[in-house]
Design a protein that fits this description.
The complex is a heterodimer of chains A (142) and B (81). The N and C termini of chain A lie far apart (38 Å). Chain A has a single domain, classed as Molybdopterin biosynthesis MoaE subunit (Aldehyde Oxidoreductase, domain 3). By secondary structure, chain A is α+β, with helices and mostly antiparallel strands. Helix content of chain A is 30%, strand content 39%. In chain A, strand 3 and strand 4 form a beta hairpin. By secondary structure, chain B is α+β, with helices and mostly antiparallel strands. Chain B has a single domain, classed as Beta-grasp domain (Ubiquitin-like (UB roll), Roll), CATH 3.10.20.30. Helix content of chain B is 23%, strand content 27%. A five-stranded mixed beta sheet of chain B has the order 2-1-5-3-4, covered by helices on one side. Classes of the chains: A alpha+beta (142), B alpha+beta (81).
Chain lengths: 142, 81
Amino acid sequence: MDAQSTSNDMTVEITDDIIDTAAFVGELRPDGGAVVTFSGVVRNHNDGREVEGIHYDCYREMAQREGERIVDGIKEQFDVRAVRLVHRVGDLNVGEVSLLVVVTAAHRGDAFAAIEALVELVKERMPIWKKERYADKESKWL
Amino acid sequence: MRIDVLLFARLRDVISADHLEFEVEEGTTVSQLAEKLMASRGDERVRGLPLRYAVDETFVPGDYRLRDGDSVALIPPVSGG
């Protein structure tokens, strides 16, 4: 990291709280011309069934460490400045944000490529599991 | 050897525990431990489930040889995001 880097350039957080997207992005140091965010949101249907919400289970200590390893790898692989990731766990309602990631870079191409790779790695490697709750009161691990 | 096994998601539901202690012989690999556990405590909801394994919060391959006191997590297919 260069001398001007601040501690919020690379962060990983697992939280039980509602994710405040504006606050999360607003904390970034304004040194990248490109700021790309991705939000994963609980949708109201899946596989033809009406979804009421999702419970996220998590191996918290490992999710934190695996998230940090993923973020480190993204910083190595792409020409980016800040990489931040927050994943919510517990019980979420339809429309609530489960995953928020943000990448800043000097140029948009790097930021878009990095964020796509980041989200793929989160979905492949972070030990987090979702259980959907349906309108008919059944629930199912995905 | 005594191994602490951490369980999550559907494995925790089926086995009705979030962790348990499991006795295995020297030289046992993590995938052999998982097979024994599935045979004794699993049911049709989790048999054949493709598992990954972690020791000390880091993924390890199935042929990882367990050491006394290891804390092993059985990782069913993840679905975060």
